[in-house]
Specification:
313 residues; mainly beta; Neuraminidase; four-stranded antiparallel sheet; globular
Length: 313
């Protein structure tokens, strides 16, 4: 039996909102205690998932079949698809500098691409510009810009609000991050904040970041083509939608399989794919569930991460 992990009384508040469940289905399941961390959708519709607890990547076909794509010697966290290759941040927080790996999504062939030697805990990873990534450093409260060809990384934006909150250091600071044209949205998990940073024409950050939501604990996130945000609340056990005016609604909760929701991404047909842990941390009703890959029918198309830097039309 898996242990039940409770939340400390010092945890900053998270406000739940009304549940308006959408049609959903489970694509695949993993045993209880499996921690699915992040995902990326391939052009053929298959999904690659970073399995934190097992230090591996799994590939899930459109019919739900699961196979191991690659095994690492440390946990993989954020994952992004750039020019047909997967780039995955791998490392145990606090042990050594994480490494960015490059993998062939078909064969699983992999090699270390570069050390992320300025980062302590590489979490969310997302395309930022052609040949560049943005990586959230959850311990130092920074967003780091990575030039894949040059093998260089440098701080893009730094903010005390992206650091871990005092007394709940087990929760990350900067966590999920995505770009939508001239803006970048990043979650500060432990502080229950959602921040937005404007991007200058030369790609630099125009700070300070604006708070677009408070008392909202978000792990990873995704944009749809209209700029609305889809948010995985992890220990909140929901998948929420936040529109451009600040209105938020939950599209799935524990009854829809969203216990321990960690990350989300749109498939090519407009379905929102969601990874979960099954509720490893503070599960609903103290009942751990299998980890899942869910598909939610949101009625929206996703924002194209291959062109995340282009102004939306």
């Amino acid at each position: 039996m898996q242990p039940i992990l409770d939340l400390p009384p010092t945890l900053l508040p998270h406000d739940a909102v009304a549940l308006a469940p959408v049609a959903h289905r489970v694509i695949a399941e993993w045993p209880e205690g499996t921690f699915l961390e992040n995902l990326v959708v391939l052009p053929d519709g298959d999904v690659v998932i970073s399995v934190l607890s097992e230090a591996r990547l799994d590939r899930v076909s459109t019919n739900g079949a699961v196979r191991v794509l690659h095994r690492f010697n440390a946990p993989p966290t954020g994952i992004a698809l750039v020019d047909g290759f997967l780039f995955v941040a791998v490392g145990e927080p606090g042990c050594a500098a994480p490494t960015l790996w490059r993998l062939d999504p078909q064969s699983g062939d992999a090699k270390p691409w570069m050390e992320l030697n300025t980062i302590q805990f590489a979490n969310g990873v997302t395309p930022f510009a052609p040949g560049q990534l943005l990586i959230a450093d959850s311990w130092q409260g920074r967003l780091v810009r990575v030039d894949l060809a040059a093998g260089r990384c440098a701080t893009w934006y730094e903010d005390e609000r992206l650091t871990r909150a005092s007394g709940i250091e087990f929760l990350p600071g900067a966590n999920g991050v995505k770009r939508f044209g001239h803006e970048v949205t990043v979650s500060s998990n432990g502080r229950a904040l959602l921040l937005r940073i404007q991007v200058a024409e030369d790609g630099s950050a125009l700070g300070p970041a604006a708070v677009i939501a408070e008392r909202l604990r978000v792990d990873d996130l995704a944009y749809d083509s209209a700029g609305r945000l889809y948010l995985c609340t992890h220990i909140g056990h929901t998948v929420d939608r936040l529109d451009r005016h600040g209105t938020r609604v939950s599209l799935a909760g524990p009854e829809q399989g969203a216990a321990g929701s960690t990350a989300c991404a749109f498939d090519r047909d407009g379905g929102l794919l969601v990874t979960t842990t099954g509720g490893i941390l503070a599960p609903p009703n103290r009942q751990l569930e299998p980890a899942k890959l869910l598909r939610l029918e949101t009625g929206s198309l996703g924002h194209d991460l291959d062109k995340a830097w282009e102004p939306p039309t």
